Amino acid sequence: xxxxxKKIVNRIKRAEGQMRGxxxxxxxxxxxxxxxxxxxxxxxxxxxxxxxxxxENLVACVSDQKKDGISQEESIQQAINLLVxxx
Length: 87
Hints:
83% of the residues lie in helices and 0% in strands.
């Protein structure tokens, strides 16, 4: 089981709050530029959180997957693919 740093959990909670704010903006008919700006901020925050999760848990993930018969190289490539695919 992976351990997630409290700062990462807080970052995700903040992004969740931002998303609720964006929904409220949309329901209020706010300008699309403002909505897209906020969406971009949330996306950046989530991208950073993903990077931190992969970086902080890479060793554990590689170890766990090695037990499952997946090589260290394959495991690292999977982590890279997750980060690249999200962009």
